[in-house]
Amino acid sequence: MSNIPAELRYTKSHEWVRVDDDGTLTIGITDHAQDALGDLVYVEVPEEGASVEAGEACAVVESVKAASDVYAPVSGKVIEGNPALADAPETINDDAYGAGWMFKLRGSVDGAELMDAAAYEAFVAAEG
Amino acid sequence: MSTAAEPLIFEHTSPGRYATAQAPAAQPLPEDIPAGLRREGAPLLPEVSELQVVRHYTRLSQQNFSIDTHFYPLGSCTMKYNPRACNSLAMLPEFLHRHPLALPDHSQGYLACMYELQETLKSVTGMKGVSLTPMAGAQGELAGVAMIHAYHAARGDTARTEIIVPDAAHGTNPATAIQCGMKVREIPTNAEGDVDFEALEAALGPQTAGIMLTNPSTLGVFERRIEEIAKKVHEAGGLLYYDGANLNAILGQVKPGAMGFDVIHMNLHKTFSTPHGGGGPGSGAVGVSARLEPFLPTPLVVKGGDGYRYADKDERPQSIGRLSAFMGNAGVLLRAYIYARMLGPEGMRRVGEFATLNANYLMTRLRERGFDLAFPGRRATHEFIVTLKRQKQELELTATDVAKRLLDHGFHAPTVYFPLLVPECLLIEPSETEERDVLDAFVEAMVAIWEEAKADIDKVKGAPYTMPVRRLDEVKAARELDLRWQPA
pTM for the complete prediction? Predict the structure, then answer.
């Protein structure tokens, strides 16, 4: 069973979103996603200042099995991409919800199509 | 097959050693090259004798896992036997020594072959025009979407900027669309492997330039509603692109032109059996319906009162232009032509029949022995997908493990982890040129690996044991790229 923290929100494309106290959104891929991809060998994160639309591909994760786009869960402006991932893509495998965060957005989750932990757990189970 | 490790050619170096017979004659230094641009030291080349070079590369060639030595069921790649006759006839000195700039009246034999190949490909695909110039499948795709773009542009229909691509498509399809300046609209596949028809209808509109389909799809199943799809796309003003990756399944049976496709690329290096793998050379000839015919890449070979000649952009002003310096990979085209002539229409029909028969036989045998199919309710085309999802859950046995262990049994691995939609998948394409004995032996090897995994999973995870190199650390290789022998 993969790790699905209760305090985060989730997308159907397996990103997680954390809403910080100051309203900043931190985004990464879920433990289930990193497990399905396997050992990551390359990560590309969006640049600071970039505007992203909800559902837009804005980052890339690549393992020896597959390359995948990572989608913006909501529209917003990129505050920061995680600079540590370029040299250490395995950080996402080791700590998907912590040091493996991918980018921070200024935006709002209001009205966004996001799931809570229970709904995401059911979604992953249904996907098989 | 030789399994002794072979050092790099650089590791054979002995300073100052060289091959006298191959050494260039001493030449004076070219005075007109500025001093600042001249090399000061000798380049870092291996210093070896001629015989060392011959032995090194011969030993490497003996380590090849090839269609000439092993069963090679690499799905989506159509690794069929390359008949020797195609090779020997294409190597006739009259072909081999013909200069590509020779005048047409000195090249009538070669041009006749190319003209007849164009005609054969038209006939077998049901298209109205064919151009042989694209050098490989990806360039054929580029030509196809560029023609779709040119068609809409010529009509002033500039709002058509979207290419629809099913999620099961080869990655080259969306890449091609982007390369041609289009936007990609992805549509899902339903549980039975068909395009999600409702999603397609929702995606169509005045912005639709076309759709790129592989039929049979990369899931190894035939797109059952293709005629309805063609009708819907045409009604919306879009065109249909046929990715010919899986043409082997339907060769001589169904024509893409009859399904309603407007443009098709054919991988002659696959379907028409020219040697491939390791990067080519290939041939991605394109065929088109009447409305795209003016846009075909040039040159074409045409037949007139004085014989055969090239038709270039000056007489085909709407052409998307040249894609290669001359007319594609001449040697590959000749081999494909000879293959087509040897088979004839009857032989072509048998290609499709036996490619699907072999795939369905192999699929049925594997299912009987307990393997899970990705689409158990569907008949295989020329290939099919086994999923090891259950074996991974129960035994930690992965597609990679099976692929590596198969090498020890003397079989090249099937395609693994493609298509991405199916977990732990093996995409298996036996092709029409394999004997039943070989297919049976492959089934036994698959069963033996599964049994071995139940008894000793670590044994399987350590495979291969009989190859020149053991299991590679793919993660380390990708994370710590090491591309040269010694720092310069």
Answer: 0.88
